[in-house]
Design goal:
The protein has helices at 18-34, 52-56, 67-79, 152-159, 181-189; strands at residues 3-10, 39-41, 82-90, 96-103, 109-114, 133-135, 138-142, 164-168, 193-196, 212-216, 219-224, 230-237, 242-243, 249-252. It is α/β, with parallel strands linked by helices and 258 residues long. Helix 1 runs parallel beside helix 3.
Length: 258
């Protein structure tokens, strides 16, 4: 591969609205497919919403792969897309995790990363270690949102040979908002970073100003935020690890019932 087309799903999610969020996620994935994306990335907790615990608790979580994951696997296989999405799961001992799942274009789960820096999620057990993943010769490292807060996760992935960092996120502005962490991780590691963030207010947090980004050498080369759900698409030159345009191509998703 010399270049790939990546679509970031910058979605307005509702806490605890599993069916509604999944329908929005599916519509966004199908939109990315129509745009001929090779790889689709969705935000952290893209089916449950971030503050789901206050709305519906944790009893809905199931052992991997649950019905929601199997639905994404079927969709990936039908559309021949690689899909990375944020979700929540429990293991066979009852421990709960904030997880990112990467599904190949043949519908198989090829990577799963459990968030390590989980202080903001009282329900979540911290994961142990991120593992770099080879996708068609491109070695990628997954860092979920606050995994980028400190340098250790990104540095570990760099040491494993990662060439690109991908971050499904739910990290908006405010008291505990990002303050240059993404930029700093790229300076330290020398690796470019793709952040798929989200939008929309929840009960306590407002993600409306949250940015989806492409960052390299400490600089935001692509940046987007909006009140509306959108699919953000860009072509990435894999030799130079640079986007081929200076802005995302933006496809807004219609408002109203999904």
């Amino acid at each position: 591969m010399n270049e790939i087309k990546i679509s970031l799903l910058h979605l307005a999610l509702e806490p605890g609205a599993l069916a509604r969020n999944y329908a929005l996620l599916e519509r966004a994935i199908r939109t990315a497919s129509a745009l001929q994306a090779d790889w689709v990335v969705a935000p952290e907790l893209s089916i449950s919403g971030y503050e789901f615990n206050d709305a519906i608790g944790t009893g809905w979580m199931a052992v991997h792969p649950d019905s929601w994951t199997l639905g994404i696997c079927r969709l990936a296989s039908i559309l021949k897309l690689t899909i990375l999405f944020g979700h929540a799961e429990c293991d066979t001992t009852g421990c709960l995790y904030n997880v990112a799942i990467m599904v190949s274009a043949d519908g198989l789960v090829m990577a799963r990363h459990r968030k390590i820096n989980t202080r903001a999620e009282s329900w979540a057990t911290p994961g142990k270690r991120a593992q770099a993943t080879d996708w068609n010769g491109l070695v990628v490292g997954i860092v979920i949102c606050a995994d980028a807060y400190t340098r250790d996760v990104a540095e570990d992935l760099r040491g494993q040979g990662a060439q690109l960092l991908i971050s499904p996120a739910a990290w908006g502005p405010g008291l505990h908002g990002p303050e240059g962490e993404w930029e700093q991780r790229t300076r330290e590691t020398g690796l470019p970073l793709v952040v798929c963030n989200r939008t929309g207010p929840e009960k306590k947090l407002d993600f409306t100003g949250a940015e989806s980004l492409f960052v390299k050498h400490g600089k935001k080369l692509l940046s987007y935020w909006s009140e509306r759900s959108a699919v953000l698409t860009f072509d990435l030159d894999l030799k130079e690890m640079m986007p081929l345009a200076s802005d995302f191509s933006i496809t807004y998703l219609s408002s109203g019932t999904v």
